[in-house]
Hints:
By secondary structure, the chain is α+β, with helices and mostly antiparallel strands. The chain contains 3 helices and 10 strands, in the order βββββααβββββα. The strands form 3 sheets. It has a 4-stranded antiparallel sheet, with no helix packed on it. It has a 4-stranded antiparallel sheet with strand order 6-5-3-8, with no helix packed on it. Strands 1-10 form a two-stranded antiparallel sheet. α1 (65-101) runs antiparallel to α2 (114-139).
Amino acid sequence: GLSVFSEEVTRGDLVFTVLAQGEVRPRREIVVAPQIGGRIAYVSPDFIDGGFIRKGQALVRLEAADYELAVVRARAGVASAEQRLATERAQSEIAIQDLENLGITDSSPLARREPQMAEAQASLDSAKAQLADAELALRRTAVIAPFDGRVREENVEVGQFASPGMSLGRIFATDVVEVALPLTDDQLGQLG
């Protein structure tokens, strides 16, 4: 047989020193840009080069007056469409009652006012969609930080006009960073 030396495996920390230089890079970095256009009414005091930001913090706010008016107009459109639908329902019920009183059992959908009801319902659905769109645009007047982090660069001022997608600055997350280090073959060998 062969002679074998054995040793029990023990768990422990291995500490070694590696001298290297590298660049720290954030895992997430984004361009801050509005989804809608408008004049900038507010810029957060934290939204400066090197500033710290928090998730959910409003970095920039656009003037909201036009979007608030659009919401009011859209709500009025919904109310008008609801009124028209209610009127069509009432007229449809009257038409059906009149047809029954006359003894007509095989009436056409037009005589029962079904197309008018469908059109009124479609108008209401369209008005509700316009209201949802107006409310969404109003919410988008605030540019919100999606994570905790820092500001790499800021290039926005109050009074400036911002268009959709226009760069207002760059921010990066500070939760996870990556450091790329060049290692020699000997140093890599020490890592096992």
